[in-house]
Design goal:
single chain; 493 residues; Nucleotidyltransferase, domain 5; 2 domains; seven-stranded mixed sheet; 22 strands; binds adenosine-5'-diphosphate
């Protein structure tokens, strides 16, 4: 019986694989960290072979830990760090350079140049994205212009580009499949999200030969098979989605107005807007939420660079705590009206400010400010930043009032209660918090016909704990005003 799904979750710092039952129950995991390369100020690279080998070993570990054999596997799903850019040689499968990671800022000047030439608006209209080095297009161009011989090989059709999903698919299928899904495509800045195709004008603008590009498919689709030597037999590859979109699926946010927010190192907030691609006037991104059976659903997305990373800073930078889990007890001991604000703009501010030059600051310090107030301010900064995103969504005409959360920080009940209070919203934590890998597994189950539809997925979603707002509106507004004052003082523009 084929009762299991192998879900690959290829992340920024580690590769993971989880074996799920066909009903979405996590059975066993394999995980491996890999090396980050920082060859220059603002540059971040991964060795693409590290990505592949660590993924493959994680798959083998997960299968072994689950105690199953590969002929019990229904199919493989892939979810991945988005935007990270890889170009490889079609004949050998060898990458022409290290992968340029989404965090990499080397193409800032080039993006600035495009902005001053007036291209931002048309790019936003076509792709839903803001002109920023974050996305793949400027990274592809950089590789073609900087790696000797790359451009002429690309023009001769000898090279292939892919985001991480596409590269893994190529490796898994031994070069037979060069495809991606609509969610990953929507993060390249070359994909017209309304027409669901690569955009010729953008390809010309970024000077990228179309022959480099993968075929774009639905999230649940036939992506070929893994080569038989990898797992002892061929396994069908049936689902792909970028990590945040996979989390949206894993959280079963299929109705317009449903939202999920993931709290790991950073925070990613995504709101389903249904079949309508809503262009943001408040510097949020419009992106493909998922495409199933040819039908595209869209989302508004806001990302915060520093969420759990603020807690890491309290631990590793200030040595105020020795473990992130200590923060909950400290926050409970703190006077709720302590008046201290931490703006963790360590690497600038993300959505909705997009201010790369801003830097962090602490405000409201008094003689009796101590460790617990600083720690509490760190936790609250994550809630206030989410409030900024909620406000931006409201200004775009959307009001998420029920938010499903996941990620490492959501173990902290105090944070989730504070989040409910500051947002004035209901916060729901599901019983399965491995939502990213789960989302990719659900895509496989859909494609294999084990689950019938998104409703079947929605029926499997289970609440672990609900947090309701308890703070009065007056108090909520007063405290948020303090945050806004603090943010206005760190902004560079
Ligand atoms: P990522 O996938 O980005 O590596 P995770 O989802 O594993 O992140 O979450 C890890 C983050 O969550 C870390 O930044 C850590 O500081 C934070 N974290 C973990 N446990 C807690 C906790 N109990 N309270 C607050 N933050 C926590």
């Amino acid at each position: 019986m084929k009762n299991y799904i192998l879900s690959i979750d290829q992340g920024t710092t580690s590769s993971r694989a989880i074996v799920f039952s066909s009903q979405g129950e996590a059975i066993a995991t394999g995980q491996e960290e890999f090396t980050q390369h920082y060859p220059n100020n603002g540059w971040v690279e991964h060795n693409a072979d590290d990505i592949w080998q660590s993924t493959l070993r994680s798959c083998h570990a997960a299968i072994k830990n689950a105690g199953i054999s590969s002929d019990e596997i229904l199919g493989i799903g892939i979810t991945n760090q988005r935007e990270t850019t890889i170009i490889w040689d079609r004949a050998t499968g060898e990458p022409i350079a290290n992968a340029i990671v989404w965090q990499d800022r080397r193409t800032s000047d080039y993006c600035q140049q495009l902005r001053s030439q007036g291209h931002e608006q048309s790019i936003q209209e076509k792709t839903g994205l803001l002109l920023d080095p974050y996305f793949s297009a400027s990274k592809i161009r950089w590789l073609l212009d900087s790696i000797p011989g790359a451009r002429s090989k690309a023009e001769a059709g000898e090279l292939a580009f892919g985001t991480v999903d596409s590269f893994l698919l190529w490796k898994l299928s031994n070069g037979k499949e060069h495809s991606t899904d609509a969610t990953n495509a929507s993060r390249t800045m070359l994909f017209n999200i309304h027409e669901q195709c690569w955009d010729e004008e953008l390809l010309t603008l970024f000077d990228i030969p179309p022959s480099l590009l993968p075929k774009v498919k639905d999230c649940a689709a036939d992506y070929g098979h893994s080569a038989s030597e990898l797992f002892g037999q061929e396994l069908p590859i049936l689902g792909i989605a970028g990590d945040q979109q996979a989390a949206l699926i894993g959280q079963a946010c299929f109705e317009p107005g449903m939202a999920k927010s993931t709290y790991g190192t950073g925070c990613f907030f995504m709101l389903n807007t249904g079949e309508q691609a809503l262009n943001s006037n408040n510097r949020l991104l419009t992106t493909v939420a998922y495409r199933l059976q040819g039908k595209t659903h869209y989302a508004l997305e806001g990302s915060i660079f520093i969420a759990g990373a603020a807690i890491q800073w309290l631990r590793d930078g200030l040595h105020l705590i020795s473990d992130a889990a200590e923060t909950e007890a400290l926050a409970k001991q703190t006077d709720s009206d302590h008046g201290v604000y931490l703006v963790p703009a360590f690497t600038g501010l993300g959505a909705p400010y997009w201010d790369p030059e801003a830097r962090g600051a602490l405000f409201g310090l008094t003689r009796d400010t101590g460790i617990k107030e600083l720690v509490t301010a760190g936790l609250e900064s994550v809630c206030y930043q989410t409030k900024d995103l909620q406000k931006a969504m409201e200004a775009d005409g959307q009001r998420p009032v029920n938010i499903r959360v996941d990620g490492g920080m959501t173990k902290n009940n105090w944070v989730l209660q504070k989040l409910a209070d500051i947002l004035g919203a209901t916060i729901d934590r599901p019983s399965c918090v491995e939502t990213t890998a789960l989302g990719a597994a659900y895509l496989v189950a859909l494609q294999a016909g084990v689950l019938e539809s998104s409703e079947s997925i929605a029926n499997l979603w289970q609440l672990d704990k609900r947090f309701e707002a308890q703070l009065s509106k007056h108090e909520r507004d007063r405290r948020y005003q303090g945050w806004q004052d603090a943010v206005s003082r760190v902004r560079s523009q």
